[in-house]
Structures are given as structure tokens and as C-alpha cells.
């Protein structure tokens, strides 16, 4: 069973007005799953179901939804193409990418475009409503394993100063950083590594100092802003 995403426990909100959503999927089975997951949610309204990326742009302009669910790969344009257009037009609609699996290049491209929601189709479909609420609230809903794989590749690649993360961090610091990115609390990370919570805090402070970043949010931004390829 897939792990719950990092940062998925905060920012969920129940609003007086339903969260308006457009779904973009070219496979009937995918669209049926989306419809089923959202139709019973009183605080979420699926205002349009679109089957092509091209048509989604016009639909977003017409309905101005709070959130748009975009299948990563479709015939013709894909989710990233649509999101690039939304970014250029300064659309207020927040995108969520639906993907079976993303390449690291696709994931980093999505992060550079400011995407805050990546919903794995391997996750339980009832979590989709939670994803919509979290992203609508301005928080991130991204599967932990995606962050972990990204950090592992980043550790083997260059950073801004030209030195690999693996050369800057000790093996234990690297492990703590991965768990921090996965969304675990200090106490949970301590349990996982069989060390004290205080030791986890010490490791985190050393990581922040070495990478010249500020806190967990800085660590997430560091991973986003450093290229993988």
C-alpha cells in the first residue's frame, strides 16, 4: 500500500463554497474513478469533465475552477504543457497531476512550474478528495516516495556549489534528511533510526547549516531548485 504523501496532514479546509474542480483525462476508466471519488463530497464540485488537454484551456478560462486535475500523459499535449500555459497566463487555478509514475525530469519540471499536487494513481482513490482540499488550501500533496527518489538522485548529482550532497552530508545526516522530506516528525524519524529525538534535531540543524538553508521548508525548496539532469 503506498505511503501517504508528505505535508498532507495540514491545510485541509472545509469551505462555505464548494471547491470547484475540472477533471482532464482521456481514458474513460480514469474519468469514472475521478467522478466516483468526488461526487459524494459536499465541499467539492466537479464542474466539467474534459477529455483533451487542448480543450482544458478553454474550459479553465470559462469556469475558472479552484483546482484542475490533469492526467500526466495524454494524446497531444500533456499535463505539463497545460500547466506551462496556466503559469504564463497567471491563472489562479491550482493544478494537480494524476500519474501512474513520473520520471525525475517530469517531476522536477512540475516543481519548477510550482505544482503542489501530484496524485499517484496507485494510491487509494478516496484520497483524491483529500488531495484536492490540501492543494486548494495552498499546501503540498506529494507522495513521499517521489520525494525520496528525488533526493537520492540529487545526492548523486551536482549542486550549486559544484559539490555533491553526499559529500556534504554524513550517511546519518542523509538518512535524517530523507525522512524529513518524507514528512515524518522528529519523533517518528528518531524511532525509525533508533536514536533520540534530540539527536535528530542536532542532525537537522547540521544539515541546515551545511546546505545553508532554513528549516524543513528550506530543505524541500533546496531539492526543488537544484536540477537533477
Q: By helix and strand content, what is the structural category?
A: alpha/beta
Instruction: Tell me the fraction of residues in β-strands, as a range.
Output: 5-15%
CATH architecture of the largest domain: 3-Layer(aba) Sandwich
Which whole number gives the mean pLDDT? 82
Rg measurement, Å? 19 Å
Distance between the termini: 30 Å
Please explain how this structure is put together.
The chain is 49% helix and 13% strand. The protein has 229 residues and is of the alpha/beta class. The chain has two domains: 124 residues, Rossmann fold; 80 residues, Winged helix-like DNA-binding domain superfamily/Winged helix DNA-binding domain (Arc Repressor Mutant, subunit A). The longest helix is centred in the last third of the chain and has 15 residues.
In short:
The chain is 49% helix and 13% strand. It has helices at 28-38, 53-63, 79-88, 104-112, 127-136, 144-156, 165-168, 171-181, 186-193, 197-211, 215-225; strands at residues 19-24, 44-50, 67-71, 94-99, 117-120, 141-142.
Keywords:
Arc Repressor Mutant, subunit A, Rossmann fold, 6 strands, 11 helices, alpha/beta, six-stranded parallel β-sheet, 2 domains, 229 residues
Lay out the secondary structure.
Elements: E1 19-24, H1 28-38, E2 44-50, H2 53-63, E3 67-71, H3 79-88, E4 94-99, H4 104-112, E5 117-120, H5 127-136, E6 141-142, H6 144-156, H7 165-168, H8 171-181, H9 186-193, H10 197-211, H11 215-225
Parallel strand pairs: 1-2, 1-3, 3-4, 4-5, 5-6
Amino acid at each position: 500500500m503506498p505511503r501517504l504523501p508528505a505535508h498532507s496532514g495540514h491545510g485541509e479546509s472545509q469551505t462555505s463554497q464548494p471547491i470547484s474542480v475540472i477533471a482532464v483525462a482521456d481514458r474513460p476508466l480514469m474519468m469514472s474513478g475521478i467522478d466516483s471519488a468526488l461526487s459524494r463530497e459536499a465541499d467539492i464540485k466537479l464542474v466539467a469533465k474534459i477529455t483533451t488537454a487542448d480543450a482544458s484551456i478553454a474550459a479553465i478560462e470559462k469556469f475558472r475552477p479552484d483546482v484542475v486535475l490533469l492526467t500526466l500523459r495524454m494524446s497531444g499535449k500533456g499535463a505539463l504543457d497545460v500547466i506551462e500555459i496556466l503559469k504564463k497566463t497567471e491563472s489562479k487555478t491550482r493544478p494537480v497531476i494524476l500519474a501512474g509514475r513520473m520520471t525525475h525530469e517530469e517531476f522536477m519540471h512540475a516543481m519548477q512550474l510550482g505544482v503542489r499536487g501530484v496524485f499517484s494513481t496507485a494510491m487509494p482513490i478516496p484520497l483524491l478528495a483529500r488531495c484536492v482540499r490540501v492543494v486548494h488550501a495552498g499546501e503540498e500533496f506529494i507522495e513521499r516516495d517521489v520525494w525520496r527518489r528525488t533526493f537520492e538522485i540529487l545526492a548523486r548529482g551536482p549542486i550549486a556549489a559544484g559539490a555533491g550532497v553526499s559529500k556534504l552530508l554524513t550517511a546519518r545526516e542523509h538518512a535524517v534528511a530523507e525522512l524529513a522530506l518524507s514528512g515524518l516528525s522528529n519523533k517518528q524519524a528518531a524511532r525509525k533510526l533508533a536514536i533520540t529525538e534530540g539527536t535528530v534535531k542536532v542532525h537537522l540543524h547540521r544539515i541546515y547549516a551545511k546546505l545553508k538553508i532554513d528549516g524543513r521548508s528550506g530543505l524541500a525548496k533546496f531539492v526543488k531548485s537544484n536540477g537533477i539532469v
